[in-house]
Design goal:
Layout (H helix, E strand, L loop, with lengths): L3 H10 L1 H4 L4 H6 L21 E5 L6 H9 L6 E5 L3 H6 L3 H11 L5 E5 L7 H10 L5 E6 L2 H6 L9 E5 L5 H8 L4 H18 L3 H4 L4 H23 L5 H13 L7 H8 L3 H13 L3 E4 L15 E4 L2 H7 L13 H16 L5 E6 L5 E8 L2 E7 L11 H10 L3 E5 L5 E5 L2 E6 L1 H10 L2
Parallel strand pairs: 1-4, 1-5, 2-3, 3-4, 10-11, 11-13
Antiparallel strand pairs: 6-7, 8-9, 9-10, 12-13
C-alpha cells in the first residue's frame, strides 16, 4: 500500500483529477505554443501493452505524450519519476496498480515520465501491464539503459518501443505548410540552414535569437555531461567523458580509434567503449558499423560515430559560424545532418552502416531494410552536372542496391549506370527518397 505522503504527492501532480472542470487548462500547460506535430502521432492508443517512448532529453517526448492523451482528459494519472518521493514510494507496480483500482478506477491512461530514474524501470512497466488495468500506459525515458537493460524481466509482448528525436526537416516543413512550391523550397532551405548549425531540438529551434539558441544548447550539453553522466550513469571521470565528446565532435565521419581516444582521455580502452555505449544509448551519438556484404575487400573493423543533432556537436566545439567555404568542417556538418535525417526517418528494424573497401573506396551510408540495401553518398558541393565516382561505381557493381543516391546542394536529376538507376538529390529531396524506399 502506498504511504499517505506518496498518495498526497500523486494528487499534487494530478490536480485535474480533483478539478476536472479545469482539466483542459491544466493539461494544456504541458503543451507549448506553437505545437509542432510529430510523426507517428496518429498511431492507435494501446490498452494491452505499454508504449515506451525513448530518445534524447528535451526532444519533446513528454509533449508528444500529452498531445496524445489530452483527448482523454481529465482521466489521466501522471507520475514524474524525477521526483524522489514518487520513484521511491511507487517502486512496487503491484501497490501502484492496487492504488489505481481503489482510488482512480475511472482513469483511461497512465503516463510515467522520466522513468529512467527508476532502479527497475522495466520491471515496473511489466508489473503494470500484467496487472491488466485495461488502460493506456505510456512511459518516457532518455536512456534505454534504465528503461530496459537494468531488469532481467522481459517486456516482450508487453510493450512497444518508439523513438523520438529532435525535429526532422519534414516535420518542420509540414508545420510551416508553405502555400506553393517556391515558398516550400525557400522554407526547406531555411530549415536546413538552421539544422546544420543549431540543430533542431524543439526549445532551440523555436527560439528567435541566436544568443538564446546558444545558451539553450550550452545548458543542454552541461546537463548531459554533468547531470546525466554523474547522476544517472555514475561516471567517475566526467572530465574524460567530456574530453571524449570533444574528440568525437571533431572527428565526424572518421573511423573510431578506441586506443587513440583512450590515450588522449587518460583512461583505458574499456572505459572509452563503455562511455561510447552510454552516449549511444542516451541518443547523443550513434555508432554505425561498417557494411559487410561478404566481399573480402571490405574493411570490417572500426565503426564510425555521428551525432544525433548538429547543434550539440557544434556547441561542443563552440563553433556556430554559418556554412561558408571559410568553415573547414562544412563537409562534416553536412554529412552529420544527412545521418541525422536518415536516422530520424528509418524504422527501428532498419540499420544504417557505411561501406569502405581496403582499396579506399567508400560510400557514406548504407541503409539495410530487410534483405534490401539502399546507398547514399553525401557531397557538400554545388554540382552542376551528374558525376559518378569510382567508389559509387564499385559499390553498384558489387551489390546492385535497390536505389543509389548522391546528396548534394543543388542538382536534382536521375541517370543510369549500366542500366542501374542513380538519383542526384538535394536536402529537400532526401526525405522523399527515404519515403520511397520504405
Amino acid at each position: 500500500m502506498l504511504s499517505i505522503d506518496v498518495q498526497n504527492r500523486i494528487r499534487q501532480f494530478n490536480p485535474w483529477l480533483l478539478q476536472p472542470e479545469k482539466a483542459g487548462e491544466l493539461i494544456g500547460r504541458f503543451l507549448p505554443d506553437p505545437y509542432v506535430r510529430r510523426d507517428g502521432e496518429d498511431k492507435p492508443l494501446l490498452s494491452d501493452r505499454a508504449t515506451l517512448l525513448v530518445g534524447p532529453r528535451q526532444a519533446g517526448k513528454s509533449t508528444l505524450v500529452w498531445s496524445r492523451l489530452k483527448p482523454l482528459a481529465p482521466d489521466i494519472l501522471f507520475f514524474n519519476m524525477e521526483d524522489i518521493l514518487l520513484r521511491t514510494g511507487c517502486a512496487s507496480a503491484i501497490d501502484v496498480a492496487d492504488h489505481i483500482r481503489r482510488e482512480y478506477p475511472f482513469i483511461k491512461a497512465v503516463f510515467i515520465d522520466e522513468i529512467h530514474y527508476m532502479e527497475e524501470a522495466g520491471l515496473f512497466v511489466k508489473g503494470l501491464v500484467d496487472a491488466k488495468l485495461d488502460i493506456s500506459i505510456w512511459a518516457t525515458g532518455s536512456s534505454s539503459f534504465h528503461l530496459l537493460s537494468r531488469t532481467r524481466e522481459s517486456l516482450a509482448g508487453r510493450a512497444v518501443r518508439q523513438r523520438l528525436f529532435p525535429f526532422s526537416m519534414e516535420e518542420l516543413l509540414r508545420h510551416l505548410a508553405p502555400p506553393n512550391p517556391a515558398a516550400e523550397r525557400y522554407a526547406a532551405e531555411t530549415i536546413v540552414e538552421h539544422q546544420l548549425i543549431f540543430g533542431s531540438y524543439p526549445a532551440v529551434y523555436l527560439r528567435d535569437s541566436v544568443q538564446e539558441k546558444q545558451m539553450l544548447l550550452t545548458d543542454l550539453v552541461e546537463a548531459l555531461i554533468l547531470r546525466d553522466a554523474s547522476d544517472l550513469f555514475r561516471i567517475k571521470r566526467p572530465d574524460a567523458f567530456r574530453k571524449l565528446l570533444l574528440l568525437l565532435a571533431g572527428q565526424i565521419g572518421s573511423l573510431v580509434n578506441l586506443s587513440e581516444h583512450a590515450s588522449v582521455c587518460h583512461v583505458n580502452v574499456g572505459t572509452v567503449g563503455a562511455y561510447l555505449d552510454i552516449l549511444d544509448e542516451s541518443h547523443i551519438v550513434k555508432i554505425i558499423p561498417p557494411f559487410a556484404g561478404g566481399k573480402r575487400r571490405e574493411i570490417i573493423g572500426a565503426p564510425k560515430v555521428f551525432f544525433v543533432d548538429n547543434g550539440i556537436r557544434n556547441q561542443l566545439l563552440d563553433n556556430f559560424s554559418p556554412m561558408t567555404p571559410l568553415r573547414v568542417d562544412q563537409g562534416q556538418i553536412f554529412e552529420n545532418w544527412a545521418f541525422s535525417e536518415i536516422y530520424k526517418t528509418i524504422s527501428m528494424q532498419d540499420h544504417v552502416k557505411f561501406w569502405r573497401s581496403k582499396a579506399g573506396a567508400e560510400v557514406d551510408f548504407v541503409i539495410e531494410k530487410g534483405e534490401k540495401i539502399y546507398a547514399l553518398e553525401v557531397k557538400c558541393s554545388f554540382l552542376r552536372e551528374p558525376r559518378i565516382g569510382k567508389s559509387a561505381r564499385s559499390f553498384i557493381d558489387a551489390y546492385r542496391p535497390e536505389r543509389f543516391a548522391i546528396l548534394n546542394m543543388v542538382l536534382e536529376q536521375k541517370i543510369e549506370i549500366g542500366y542501374w538507376p542513380v538519383s542526384f538529390i538535394t536536402p529537400r529531396g532526401l526525405q522523399e527518397w527515404l519515403d520511397v524506399e520504405r
